[in-house]
Amino acid sequence: MTDSTDWREAIENSRWKIDFEINHYGDLFYSLIRTHQPGKVVELGTKAGYSAYHMAHGLRENGIGGLDCYDLWENYEFNSCPKSEAEANLREFIDAGIVRLHQRNVDGLHNEYDSIDILNVDLGNHADLLEEIVMPWLPKVKELTIIEGGSVERDQVDWMEKYAKRKIKPWLDGLGEKGYKVFTFEPFPSVSLIKPK
Ligand SMILES: C[S@@+](CC[C@H](N)C(=O)[O-])C[C@H]1O[C@@H](n2cnc3c(N)ncnc32)[C@H](O)[C@@H]1O
C-alpha cells in the first residue's frame, strides 16, 4: 500500500480492497490477538480477508486458537468480493486449521455459539445493524468485541449520510449505561473495542 493521496485507487489495486489498510489496522488486529491469547475468535464480515489475515497471523504466533469467518461474499447485494479471493488470501491459515470460512448470513448466528473470546464485526456497520447483530453476542463474548467504526469522521462517510444510517458513535456512547466500556482508535476508518466493565 502506498501513501498516495488517491487512496481509493490504491485500495482498488490492493488485494484486500479495504480502507483498514490506509492506516495499517492490520497491526492492531494482530496485536489484539497476541495480547489477549484467545481460544475462539469469530469474525462477522470477512470480504477478501484483511482483518482475518492479521488475526490469523496472531493466532499462529500464539500457537493456540481458531478463527471462524462468516460472510455472504458474492451473495451480498452491496460491496464485497468472491469467496475465492478470501480463500486465496487466507490459504496458509485454512490449510493449518486456524481459519474456517462459512458462507452464510450472520443473522441469528449467535444462537450457534455458547461463548467465544473475541468477536470482530465489520458488516458495513451502522448503529441499527450493530444493535440487532451485536447486542445478542455481547453476553457471550468473554474478552473483547471489535467493531469497525466509532469515530465522528466514520459516521460522516458518504453512504451513511446518503442512506440516513444511524450513527455509530452515539450508539457506542450509550453502551456505558449498559455495563460496557468502549475505546475508539480514531484514524480512519476507526476501530472500537467493547469490553464488560
Ligand atoms: C467491510 S466488508 C468486511 C471487510 C473485512 N473485515 C476486511 O478486513 O477486509 C463487509 C462484509 O460484510 C459482509 N456482510 C454484510 N452483511 C452481511 C450479513 N448479513 N451476513 C454475512 N455477511 C455480511 C459483506 O459481504 C462484506 O464482504
Written account of the structure:
By secondary structure, the protein is α/β, with parallel strands linked by helices. Helix 2 (26-36) packs parallel to helix 3. Helix content is 35%, strand content 21%. The longest helix has 13 residues, at 50-62. Strand 6 and strand 7 (191-196) form a beta hairpin. The chain has 9 helices and 7 strands, in the order ααβαβααββαβαααββ. The protein has a 7-stranded mixed beta sheet, with helices on both faces. It has one domain (4-195): Vaccinia Virus protein VP39 (Rossmann fold). The protein starts with 6 loop residues before the first helix and ends with a strand. The structure holds S-adenosylmethionine (SAM). S-adenosylmethionine binds next to helix 3 and strand 2. S-adenosylmethionine (SAM) binds at residues 16, 18, 20, 45-48, 50-51, 70-73, 76, 80, 105-107, 122-124.
Count of discrete alpha- or pi-helical segments spanning 4 or more residues: 9
SS class: alpha/beta
Shape annotation: globular
Distance between the termini: 37 Å
Number of strands: 7
Q: Under CATH, the topology is which?
A: Rossmann fold
CATH superfamily membership, which one? Vaccinia Virus protein VP39
Q: Briefly, what CATH class?
A: Alpha Beta
Beta-strand percent range: 15-25%
Order of helices and strands: HHEHEHHEEHEHHHEE
